[in-house]
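Sequence in, structure out.
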Amino acid sequence: MVKHEFTSKIINLIENDLKVNGEELIKFSPLLEYINIKTRSANKGSKSRGSFANLYAIYVLLEDYIKIVFEDKSKYSKHQGAVFSELFKRQRELPFGSKLQNHALNHRLNEEYHKYFPTTNEQIILRDIPSCRYWINRNLIVIKYNNHEYDLSKTIIKIIDSYINAKRDAFDNFISACEELQKIENQDKENIFHLL
């Protein structure tokens, strides 16, 4: 398992939500391990590239999943699938998502997932190309671990929300630092004018 500064946050969220050993569950779940890999830039500052496209594809499909299974988990197997245009619109509404393209939903997420986990036959996104309908692979979000079944959907949403907040904080800190530098520069100009 890849460990980075944000991994401890993921572990804490898992343990608080699901009451299991977070590190063990990440090792057990390829989807959680993938999300852990994709969030490694969380605490690296504003200039490090965020992994929003693939995380947001997961996020919007989980939102759809949660909405469908809220009352009855068996409904998802009968769900006609989320409409691509609605998923794509929702991705672009999320922080830092306004310029995202459709690649993550259309194939890139599944391809990259297989790059990290080449022996798995599972895909994160299931889709019907002619109808432009999409589903999250329930086999990756509802898992059996230590003789219990765990639905990871809400926990993954919290992990991605926490990642967004970390990236937003890094960006805000960068803006604050720039503003402070601007104040220092302006003060120096005033001092120079007084010296003349």
